[in-house]
From TrEMBL:
Keywords: Membrane, Transmembrane, Transmembrane helix. InterPro entries: DUF4845. The chain crosses the membrane at residues 12-35. This is DUF4845 domain-containing protein. The lineage of its organism: Bacteria, Pseudomonadati, Pseudomonadota, Acidithiobacillia, Acidithiobacillales. It comes from Acidithiobacillus sulfuriphilus. It holds the Pfam family DUF4845.
Amino acid sequence: MMRTKDQRQAGISLLGLLFWMVLLVLIIAFVVKIMPVYYDYWSLESIVSTQAREARPQSSEDEIRYDLNRRLGVAMINIPQKDIQIAKDGNAQPIITVDYDKVVPLVGNVSLLIHFHTVGK
């Protein structure tokens, strides 16, 4: 019995289903590896902005750095000290700049390098 054009079966084949399942799993795995890095960055932005706002104009760079590191320690965010710059503007308000890279291992010897930059005024 021959099927006419109107009687064809429509749907997804087993191979098509496997392809989309594998693709979905890879996307979920990628997001799971990347999201903690961005969550830390968003927390860092908040901490840096708060520290810059709350720092007194007469505070020294060491005092500001100490308070910032204390807040980062509570949030369990590790940023190398060389990546944190503290300066003061014309009104003696601190400007905290954090500029760092994060390497996220993906699969085997493949990694993703993400560059972050935030300024707190």
